[in-house]
Each structure stands twice: as C-alpha cells, then as structure tokens.
Amino acid sequence: MQKNELKQLVQQLPKAELHLHIEGTLEPALMWRLAKKHNIALPFSSVEAIQQAYQFNNLQSFLDLYYQGADVLRDEDDFFELMWAYLSKCHEQNIVHVEVMFDPQTHTTRDIGYDVFMPGFAKAIEKAKAELDMSAYLILSFLRHMSEDSAIETLEQAKPYYSMISAVGLDSSELGNPPSKFQRVFAQSAALGFNLVAHAGEEGPPEYIWEAINLLKVDRIDHGVRSSEDPKLMTYLKEQQIPLTVCPLSNLKLCVVDDISQHNIVELLHDGLLVMVNSDDPSYFGGYLNENFYALIDKLSLSSQDIVALASNSITASFLPENEKQHWLNKIQEITSN
Ligand code: HPA
Ligand code: ZN
Questions:
Q1: Which residues line ligand 1 (CB under 6 A)?
Q2: Residues known to be catalytic
Q3: So what's the pLDDT on residue 286?
Q4: H/E element holding 313?
Q5: Ligand 1 probe mutation, 103, 280, 283, most atoms within 8 A of CB
Q6: Mean pLDDT score of the chain, rounded to an integer?
Q7: How many Å lie between the centroid of ligand 1 and the Cα of residue 101?
Q8: What CA–CA distance (Å, rounded) separates 110 from 102?
Q9: What is the CA radius of gyration of the chain?
Q10: What CATH number should be reported for the domain holding residue 217?
C-alpha cells in the first residue's frame, strides 16, 4: 500500500486513545482567549509566539511550560471547553474511546478544586456520549515531583467523584521520582477498585518499569520505550501482554529519540508487545493521534497489518468492558476484510 493509502486506513479505523493529558490539549488560541477572559498576563506577545516557544530539550523543559499554560484554566466553563475541544477533535479522527489523564494537583495547588474541574469535564463527556457516540473515561494522575502524602490527600479529595474515575496514574518529572515513592497510594487506589497506570521508561531506566509492575502493580505502562534496553523485561512484557502506551511525537519533541526513523515502536510491535499509538500532549508536540500515525508512516516502513494491529491493540488495552472491546474489534475486522 502507498503511504497515502495507509494514511486513509488510519483515518478509517476506529481507535482508542489511552495516553493523553487533558492539560496538554490546551491549544495556543484557547490559552490566549482564556488569558484575556481572566485578565492574566501571559509572557507571550501573540498566539504565534506561544507556538514558537514550544521547543524542548527534555521532559522538564516541556513540563515548565505545560504547568505555566494550565494557569489560564480557572472556571468550570474553561475545563468544559478544554475537554469538549479535545473530544470533538477525536470525533474528527475516528477515535471512538478515550482514557483521559488529568492532573488534580496542577489545579488544587492554585486553589481550583475538584468542584470546578470535575463538573466541567463531566458536561463535555456527557455531551460527547450523546452527540458524538463516543466514550471517555478519566484517569486521575498524581504528580510524581510532589510527595506521596500530597498524592494521598489528592486521592481523598476526589472521593465525591470516584464514580467518574476509572483509573489512577503517575506523571510529571520521572528521573529521581521512581514508582517506589508511590507504593502506598497505589495500594490504596487498588483497594478502592481503580485500574492502575504509571509513566515509566520515558526518560527513566528499565528498573522504573519493573518497579511500576512489581511494586505499583499497574495494568499498563505509559511510554515504556526504554524497555528495549532490558531483554528480560521485554520477555516479561510480551508474556504478560502488559500494554505500553507509546507516544512517538512526544518522544521526538522531548528528545527521547533524535528522529522518528529511530523510534522503536515497530520493533516492539513485531516482538509481540501490546503497544499502540497515542498523542500524550498534542497541542505541545505537534499532532493529535492520527498525525502520530502519519509521522510513523512517513519515516518508518509500516505495513497495513501493522496499522491494523496498532489500532486493535488500542481497543484491547483499554479499560472498556469485554463486549464493547469486541464490538470495536469486529468493526476493525469488517473494515479490513472489505
Ligand atoms: N511525561 C510525564 N509527565 C507528563 C507528560 C509526559 O509525557 N505529559 C504530561 N505530563
Ligand atoms: Zn504522558
């Protein structure tokens, strides 16, 4: 198949997105408008200047801008707009199910509480269910540069909203903040019945992936691209089919890889690991889910079978109930058998 046909296939296939930070979908134009609305002085002279500032040399240089950007999110309507814009984009890209991370501490540390952001998210998710025929789950993510006590407090504060949350996660500055730091709060989250995910092996070593599996008992690893440095880990991930939610353009923008042509996603897939494509922070990294696929198609030799496998894996690795997974896997089969 030609590259343009492969891109059409990407657009046609129903897909799930499992690694997405809602604060990372804040487009410069919305940031600009919300700053005006709330009379916030931005350190940028125009929307274009915001865009031009998005040059990063590692995870931390991105996080500094990402937390600064999130400061324009102040009221319920802002959180609604943010979520609605993302879900509308998903609909355009034929993404039928999403599991969206949000960082409560980014907001509660600014005195913006769950009672502000959760109703905003809920309204957008309900509207998407009704009007776009898509499902969205929420993943409460703890900031790993903060203490475990703060994470425990964050979990407790979420209590009125537990029914809206399907998993907890772990994000922010990885190096120096290993999964072992969050063992208690993950055990508490498991006891409450939440699914568990954690970022590991993005900048951090394979040992962090082992810790996330053995100490935090996660269901999925976010990123995990450094697992290829550890053959025993590769065997384990393959045997256990522990999903890795891989984000190619994120890895490029944060200098985890020098070029997409050097990305290991195809090797991971061909080695039998349960990997799929995600966008992470699309507004900052230059593309939503389908653009991540297009970058892979342009720079790597990806077959139509690889694309179908990646789309199928996104459904299989989701927290959807089995009957809904089967429904979407059947749809993928129907499309590919025509
Ligand atoms: N890694 C860690 N923390 C994050 C990321 C990421 O890619 N995006 C938003 N928070
Ligand atoms: Zn991430």
A1: 21, 24, 59, 66, 171-172, 199, 202, 250, 280-281
A2: 202
A3: 97
A4: helix 304-316
A5: 280
A6: 98
A7: 10
A8: 15
A9: 19
A10: 3.20.20.140
Predicted pLDDT at 15: 98
Q: Which tokens is 89 given?
A: 């984009």
Q: Report which DSSP code applies to 57.
A: S
Cα 234 to Cα 264: distance, rounded to the nearest angstrom: 13
Mean pLDDT of 127-152: 98
Contacts 24+ apart (CB under 8 A), 231-239: 233/206, 233/209, 234/271, 234/273, 237/273, 237/274, 238/271, 238/272, 238/273
Going from the Cα of 171 to the center of ligand 2, the distance in angstroms, rounded, reads 6
pLDDT at position 271 is 98
Q: Which atom of ligand 1 is nearest to the CA of 103?
A: 10
Beta bridge partners of 99: 137
Whose CA is closest to atom 4 on ligand 1? 172
Residues of the domain holding 302: 3-337
- 305 C-alpha to ligand 2 centroid (Å): 26
Query: Does the predicted model carry a pTM greater than 0.70?
Result: yes
For the chain, what is the domain count? 1
Atom 10, ligand 1: residue with shortest CA distance: 172
The closest of 3, 4, 54 to 27, measured between CA atoms, is 54
Separation CA 258–CA 261 (nearest Å): 8
